[in-house]
Specification:
Strand content: under 5%
Order of helices and strands: HHHHHHHHEE
InterPro entries: Cro/C1-type_HTH, Lambda_DNA-bd_dom_sf
Strand order of the largest sheet: 1-2
Organism: Hydrogenophaga intermedia
GO molecular function, one term: DNA binding
Protein name: Transcriptional regulator, y4mF family
Helix content: 55-70%
Length: 168
């Protein structure tokens, strides 16, 4: 598994290769208000960036939330699509995910909870994020739910199977 330092350096290199305003170590250093030698050491894996450096470089690269800087390309596309949705569509997506399964909902609500903690979730979405968090708690199976089926509104017991021709 790739270390965070290597992932950060890789993402910084990708941005430097695709952004003319940040195509050199000097430009990145000036935009982030850090030393060029520090940028060089980070890119060559000789130094791990401090949290302050990560935040400064992320902001210099136009990334609002420094945690987003380490997302893979597919995760970034998903996040961009999420932000392009209207509030009602986001709520519908969260509802669908809650209905489809706890593992998906749990992971997404953890991400959204982190984003909400970072105050990057727009205010109109916070109720939907909160509801999704509560749904994930309702869908979490436990040992006492054996033989029950998870639903968006809790659990229900499965009806026993009847033998054909059994009297009522």
């Amino acid at each position: 598994m790739e270390s965070l330092s290597k992932k950060f350096a890789r993402r910084l290199r990708e941005i430097m290769n695709t952004t003319m305003a940040l195509d050199t170590q000097t430009k990145v250093a000036e935009a982030a208000d850090i030393g060029q030698a520090s940028v060089a050491r980070i890119l060559h894996g000789k130094q791990s960036a401090t949290l302050d450096m990560v935040e400064a470089i992320a902001h210099a690269c136009g990334v609002k939330n420094a945690a987003y800087f380490l997302l893979d390309e597919a995760e970034l596309r998903l996040l961009q699509q999420w932000h392009a949705l209207g509030a009602s569509d986001r709520e519908a997506v969260l509802g669908y995910m809650a209905f489809k399964g706890q593992s998906v909902t749990k992971g997404v609500t953890q991400i959204l909870d982190f984003a909400r903690d970072q105050q990057s979730v727009p205010r109109e979405l916070q109720p939907a994020v909160s509801r999704a968090s509560r749904r994930s708690l309702l869908l979490r199976p436990n040992s006492t739910d054996a033989g029950k089926e998870a639903t968006p509104h809790g659990t229900k017991a499965k009806a026993p199977k009847r033998k054909s021709g059994a009297s009522r």
